[in-house]
Amino acid sequence: MANELLSERRKDVLWLTLNRPEVHNALNAAMTDALTTAIRAASGNHALRAVVITAAGDRSFCSGADLKESAGGMFLSRDGTNPIADVMRAIEGCDKPVIARINGRVLAGGLGLVAACDLAYAADHAEFGLPEVRVGLFPAMVAAKLLAKIPLSQLQEMAYLGAAINAADGERLGLVNRVVPSAELDGVVEDALARLRQNAPGAIAAGKAALLKMRDMPAGDRLAFAENVIATISGSNEAREGRLAFAEKRKPLWVE
């Protein structure tokens, strides 16, 4: 894997580190290709329970697309899709929870990565911004994900004015799950991972897929869809094991 992205297996979790701190971890072609490949490979790997995306350094999580590469095709890949959009699709398509560990400023396409993640935890010095209009661009792809995360009026202010919000506002708006001092960030992420390990991986995978589908369907169709989802999940081997473990007052087999 290219040096732009560091990959480390820690027990049952894949840690991916954006590794271009000298340019605020801007996304170039090598990094986006490596991210997409790594996340897709993690999906379906039964030895993994989660993926964590973080970044080198403590100043910037990700500043978005590397504008020095954009003229050479950073906004359009070989198959006609956008490389950053491909990463976001890989995150949402992954059958594992993908967690953003945010240790600095998040701008532009970097905010799209955060919005695509299932869970996000941030250090209290983090900031979130959409400065694209300052260079003649617009955060259209990022907005596609943020529309499901934050109020439209807040998104409009950020997108039209190139404005940024602080970590506390990001938590208040629901962009991140929790904000803590930098020294506590690793502990919060590890706590989330420990809690995930107590829960059925198949149920989480099915639930993640169902939540994303229900998010994008008309409200009136959601309940009928959910009926089918719960019927399928309740008949799974995991559900049978969960009920048996409950009756026998023991931990289910997926808990070490």
TrEMBL record:
Gene Ontology terms for molecular function: catalytic activity
InterPro entries: ClpP/crotonase-like_dom_sf (IPR029045), Enoyl-CoA_hydra/iso (IPR001753), Enoyl-CoA_hydra_C (IPR014748), Enoyl-CoA_Hydratase/Isomerase (IPR051683)
Pfam family, one: ECH_1
Entry similarity comment: Belongs to the enoyl-CoA hydratase/isomerase family.
PANTHER family: ENOYL-COA HYDRATASE, POLYKETIDE BIOSYNTHESIS ENOYL-COA HYDRATASE PKSH-RELATED
Protein name (record): Enoyl-CoA hydratase
